[in-house]
Amino acid sequence: MEELQAQGLGVAAISYDSEEVLADFSQRRGITFPLLSDDDSQVITEYGLLNTVVAEALGSGAEDPDVVADEAKYVSVFGVEDEMAGMVFPGTFVLDRTGRVTEGFFEELYQERNTTANVVLKVDAGAPPVTAIEASTAHLELIPYPSNASVTIGTRFSVAVQVEPRPNMHVYAPAADEMGYRVVSLDFEPLAEVRFEPVEFPESEIFHFEPLDERVPAYERPFSLLQEVVVERTAEARETLRQRGTVVLKWRVRVPGL
Fold first, then answer.
1. 3-state helix, strand, coil in the chain (%, to 5)
2. Which sequence spans correspond to the domains of the chain?
3. 2-122 in CATH: which number?
4. Do 180 and 256 contact (CB within 8 A), yes or no?
5. Kind of pairing, strands 171-172 and 214-219?
6. Pairing of strands 113-114, 155-165
7. Lowest-confidence range among 49-53, 117-121, 150-154, 209-213?
8. Does residue 41 contact residue 88 with C-beta atoms inside 8 Å?
9. Cα separation of 150 and 207, whole Å?
10. Which contacts qualify for 127-133: CB closer than 8 Å, 24 or more apart?
11. pLDDT tens for residues 11-20?
C-alpha cells in the first residue's frame, strides 16, 4: 500500500459479500483499504462481470455435463452453493483521477489471478518493482526484470525487457515482416509448469530507409517488450514446483535488422 500510495495510486475492493462479512474479513486480515459491498450484484451486473455459470449450475443446468464442467472450471472444483449466486469474475479496474475507467484486467478462471505488481507494470505506473539486471551489446542496451520475485500456482505475472537502441540503430517492429523484414522477438524456452501468453509490443515509429525510399515500422527510441506468464494449475506443475521451489525462465531477444 505504501508503494502504491507513493505513486499516487489508491486501492478499493468490491464484492457481492455483505457489509458484515467484509467488516469481519478486513478485521481478521488487517486490511486497511476500503472494501465495498455490492450485495445485490447490481454494479457487478452493470459492468458485465457477473459469473452466470453459478446461476446455471444452481438452476436448470444442474445435471448438464457441460455446465458441471464449467462449474469446476469457472466457479469451484468443490461445486456451487446458494451463497455463491451473484459472484463476479475476479479482476481489476484502473481508474483515473476523474473516475474514468482506463484499463481492465479480468480472469475467467477464478484460480488465476493478476498480481498488483503486474497490473502496475502493465499500466506503466511505476518503476521496476524488483531488482533489474542489465546487459549490453554493440547495438543496444537491455534491462530485463519480472513483475514479481515470488509466484505461486495460478499467478499471472510478466517479464519485461527494456530495450534501448544505440545511436543510429533501429529495430524492426511488428508489421515490418509484411515488407520482408524480420522483426524483434522475445523467445522463451517452453516449460510444463507455466503458460506463455503472446508477447505485447508497444506502438512503433516509421523508419524511412532513403536508399530504397521505404518506410518501415521500427523502433529507434527506447521501448519495452512485455511477456505475460501464468503458473499452471495442473497436478504436474504443482509437483514440479513443490520439488524445485523455483521457476527458471530462459529467454532470448532476437533483434535482426539493426
1. 25, 30, 45
2. 2-122, 135-254
3. 3.40.30.10
4. no
5. antiparallel
6. parallel
7. 49-53
8. yes
9. 40
10. 128/160, 129/3, 132/162
11. 999 998 999 9
207-213 average pLDDT score: 87
pLDDT in tens, 111-158: 888 999 999 888 875 555 566 778 888 888 988 889 998 899 999 999
Cell numbers at 64, concatenated? 448438464
Q: Is 198 in a helix, a strand, or coil?
A: coil
Cell numbers 452453493 label which residue? 81
Q: CA nearest 85: which of 43, 47, 57?
A: 57
Which one is the CATH code of 135-254: 3.60.21, 2.60.40, 2.20.25, 3.90.320?
2.60.40
DSSP string, 105-125: EE-SSTT-EE-HHHHHHHTT-
- Say if strands 140-146 and 194-196 run parallel, antiparallel, or are unpaired: unpaired
